[in-house]
Amino acid sequence: MIFVGLKRSLLNRVFGGVAGGIGDYLGISGWWVRAAFFAILLTNFSFGVLLYILLWFLIPGQTAADTPAIPLPDEAPQPRYTRPEGVLMIGFLAMLIGVVILAETTGVLLAAGGDLLPPGMLVVISIVVLLKHLRGVA
User: Coil, strand, or helix at residue 111?
Assistant: First the structure.
């Protein structure tokens, strides 16, 4: 049984390994996560890009020591299991994204001068990076 920690993938990556790492953690194909990011990009491009960048900064990168061993041709691969907390995380993120898209389409995140979502995401990213740096993680 293989349980993988949440890390950006070295092997299953297209851009930064975020979708591959999330897929490895949840026990699903990284292409499902990429499809979800693509759906977010279609509905709200700036939110999808900022979310990906935020996850790129927050999720640590996978090292060569973290990669699972490749089975020999005569060995059966070890089964992978979906974590229950991973399924809960998918549900929570889906609700959060739905609320943000709903708030964006109803005009809750609109100000007199324009859209508040991209600057709000930049503020959240900067606060997270600052807190990580203050804790000595960055």
Answer: strand
| Residue 9, in any domain of the structure | no
What does each C-alpha distance from 96 to 57, 60, 88, 100 come to in angstroms?
19, 22, 12, 6
CA 46 to chain centre: 15
On the CB side of 88, CA atoms within 13 Å amount to: 3
Model pLDDT for residues 37-82, shown as the tens digit of each residue:
888 888 778 888 888 888 888 888 887 777 766 777 777 766 665 6
pTM, two decimals, is: 0.56
5 occurs within a structural domain: no
The CA distance from 117 to 41, in Å, is 14
Residue with tokens 């600057």: 119
Domains of the chain: total: 1
